[in-house]
Design a protein that fits this description.
The chain is α/β, with parallel strands linked by helices. It has eight helices and nine strands. It binds NADP nicotinamide-adenine-dinucleotide phosphate (NAP). The site of NADP nicotinamide-adenine-dinucleotide phosphate (NAP) has 32 residues, from helix 1, strand 2, helix 4 and helix 6.
C-alpha cells in the first residue's frame, strides 16, 4: 500500500461498513495515517477478521464496533462504546465515513416492500441514524464522507431502488452540508463499479448474464475500480487539509459518467 499523508494523525474516525470492501480500505489508509479507527458492521466474525487484516497490513490496531446502522439504539450504543474506548468525557469524533451499504439487482416489477426496506433502511435510514448519533461529538469541527454511487447521479439498468437510495445520499449530503456549516463538512464520494465482496455478490446474483470483463469494457479506463483507489479519494476528502470543501459530490468512476 502506498503510504500518503492525509494529515489525520491523532484524529478519531468511525467507518460504518469498515469491515469489508471500500470501508475496510479506508480504515487501512486512516490507520496508516495515524488515526484512531473504529470499524462498524453487523458480523462479529467479519469484524474480527478485518481487525486482524488491518493489523497485518498496517501494524496498527483498529477497534471493531458491532452496529446495525438500521437501528437508532445500535447507533447510539456504538457511539457510547467509542466513548468508553476513547476514555475521556470530552472526546470528539473527527471523521465519520458512512460506507455501510447493500446492493440488489432487481427491476421494479419484482420489488416487494421487504426488498424496498432492505435497501432503503440500510443505505438511507442507516446513514441518517448513524450521522444523527455521531453529530453531538462532531459539532466542534469534523468531516463526514458519505459513500453514494454513480447510480445516485445517473440512472443504472436493473436497480431502481438502489439508484433511488444513492440519489437520496447525494441530496442528503448537500442538505446536511448547509445545516452543519461551518462546523462540520459533509461531502459524498460516488464510485462506479469497484472490486469488492458487494460486486462479487452482484455477479453471482446476475446468474452470469454479464461478466467482469463486460463491465470493464464500459469504462474509458478499461477496467473497474479498486477499493484502495476509492479509499484514497475518501481520505483526501475527509482530510483536515481539505478545509474548503463541503456539499461536494465527488465522482471516482474511471470516466464512466464523463460522456
Ligand atoms: N462495490 C461497488 O461496486 C460500489 C459502487 C458504488 C458504490 N458502492 C457503495 O460503497 C459502499 C461500500 O460497498 P462495498 O462494495 O465496500 O460493500 P461490501 O464489501 O459488501 O461491504 C459492505 C459493508 O457494509 C456493512 N453493512 C451492511 N449492512 C449493514 C448494516 N445494516 N449495518 C452496519 N453495517 C452494514 C457490511 O458488514 P456486515 O454485513 O457485517 O454488517 C460491510 O462491512 C456501499 O454503500 C455501496 O453501496 C459500492
Amino acid at each position: 500500500m502506498t503510504k500518503l499523508n492525509y494529515g489525520c494523525q491523532g484524529l478519531t474516525a468511525l467507518i460504518s461498513g469498515g469491515t469489508s470492501g471500500i470501508g475496510l480500505a479506508v480504515a487501512a489508509k486512516l490507520l496508516a495515517d495515524g488515526a484512531r479507527v473504529y470499524i462498524a458492521g453487523r458480523s462479529q466474525r467479519r469484524g474480527e477478521q478485518a481487525v486482524a487484516a488491518l493489523r497485518q497490513q498496517t501494524g496498527a490496531e483498529a477497534v471493531y464496533i458491532g452496529c446495525d446502522v438500521r437501528s437508532a439504539a445500535d447507533c447510539r450504543r456504538a457511539l457510547a462504546e467509542i466513548g468508553v474506548c476513547e476514555g475521556r468525557a470530552d472526546w470528539t469524533l473527527d471523521i465519520l465515513v458512512n460506507s455501510a451499504g447493500v446492493y440488489r439487482e432487481q427491476r421494479l416489477e419484482q420489488m416487494s416492500e421487504a426488498d424496498y426496506a432492505e435497501i432503503m433502511d440500510c443505505n438511507v435510514k442507516g446513514t441518517l441514524l448513524l450521522t444523527q448519533a455521531a453529530l453531538p461529538r462532531m459539532y466542534g469541527g469534523g468531516s463526514i464522507v458519505n459513500i453514494a454511487s454513480d447510480a445516485g447521479v445517473s440512472g443504472n439498468y436493473g436497480c431502481p431502488v438502489y439508484c433511488a437510495s444513492k440519489g437520496a445520499i447525494v441530496a442528503l449530503t448537500r442538505a446536511l452540508a448547509l445545516d452543519l456549516a461551518p462546523s462540520v463538512r459533509v461531502n459524498c464520494v460516488c464510485p462506479a463499479d469497484v472490486d469488492t465482496p458487494l460486486l462479487a455478490r452482484q455477479l453471482v446474483d446476475a446468474d452470469e448474464s454479464y461478466t467482469l470483463a463486460d463491465m470493464a469494457a464500459a469504462y474509458p479506463l478499461g477496467r473497474i475500480g479498486r477499493a484502495e483507489e476509492i479509499a484514497h479519494t475518501v481520505c483526501s476528502v475527509a482530510s483536515p487539509a481539505n478545509s474548503f470543501m463541503t456539499g461536494s459530490v465527488v465522482t471516482v468512476d474511471g470516466g464512466l459518467t464523463a460522456g
